[in-house]
Design goal:
Layout (H helix, E strand, L loop, with lengths): L6 H23 L2 H27 L16 H23 L9 H22 L2 H29 L2 H29 L7 H13 L2 E10 L5 E9 L4 H19 L1 E7 L2
Parallel strand pairs: 2-3
Antiparallel strand pairs: 1-2
Bound molecules: zinc ion.
Length: about 270
């Protein structure tokens, strides 16, 4: 990770301040759209903590209980994030169902604006420093979009009718469920031993054939976003055993280096 040591604490401080401002605004000034928005801020903080923790764990080298390494523990961050968002989605639905008339004070809008400024600061820093923090910037952009919805909804709720504020709360709640669906679908696919795209398999075949082998069978599965595992069965085309064994080693090394493909190779006749 590039960037100085103050960056991560600064991003966290801005995010915590953003969450605090939004929830204070929701409680003091009665906006339900701001309340639902503040719930997602807390889910976002849980998501950041979980993603950071599991990302670090996923980089641990292989050990006695994880012979292939810890890559898939990286999905722990996604799963914990989904649990946090699903929990706040439940609270949001119950808030929407308590739909008796209420009053929104225009100050709620200003609190939403303050939240927007704080989160924009966090995203700016996260985007500026390093690849891992960029992921945070991407999924925190939703906080900015939510803030914009709340600014519109809470001002409408304060100046026109509370139902506009309630509609804003419903939009943000619906958005949480859409995000949960998308993330859930993605993580299930990733955990399903999904194969890499056909052009990846084609390139593996090219490497194998350029070393004097025929690719008899290939089984590949993605372990994480960047890492693929596989089993290859190769037939040496007119190579002596010693040469075939040496070239097998070369093929394995090249596949690891070029495609981050970790594979077992079986030679056949
Ligand atoms: Zn382990």
């Amino acid at each position: 990770m590039r960037g100085s040591t103050w960056v991560l604490p600064a991003i966290l401080a801005l995010s915590v301040a953003g969450a605090a401002v939004k929830s204070a605004g929701a409680f003091l000034y009665g906006s339900r759209s701001l309340f639902v928005d503040s719930l997602t801020c807390f889910a976002n903080l849980v998501a950041v903590a979980a993603t950071t923790h599991f990302y670090r764990v996923s980089l641990e080298p292989p050990d006695i209980d994880h012979h292939f390494g810890h890559y898939r523990l990286g999905y722990g961050g996604t799963i914990v994030s989904m649990l946090a968002y699903a929990f706040v989605a439940g609270i949001a639905v119950s808030t929407l169902l308590q739909s008796e008339s209420y009053e929104v004070h225009i100050s709620a809008t200003w609190m939403a604006v303050a939240g927007l400024v704080l989160y924009s600061g966090a995203i700016f820093l996260a985007h500026k420093f390093g690849s891992f923090l960029k992921a945070y910037a991407v999924f925190t952009v939703s906080e900015v979009i939510e803030s914009l919805v709340v600014v519109a909804a809470s001002s409408g709720g304060a100046l026109v009718n509370y139902r506009i504020d309630l509609a804003g709360a419903a939009v943000i709640t619906a958005y949480i469920f859409i995000e949960l669906y998308g993330t859930g679908k993605n993580v299930i696919t990733c955990l399903s031993d999904v194969a890499p795209p056909p052009h990846f398999v084609e390139r593996v075949k090219e490497v194998v054939e350029s070393h004097g082998f025929r690719l008899v069978s290939v089984k590949l599965r993605k372990v994480s976003e960047n890492l693929t595992h596989g089993d290859l069965v190769l037939r040496p085309e007119g190579l002596r055993l010693e040469e075939a064994v040496k070239r097998t080693k070369d093929v394995k090394e090249l596949l690891k280096k070029e495609f981050n493909l970790d594979c077992s190779v079986e030679l056949t006749i």
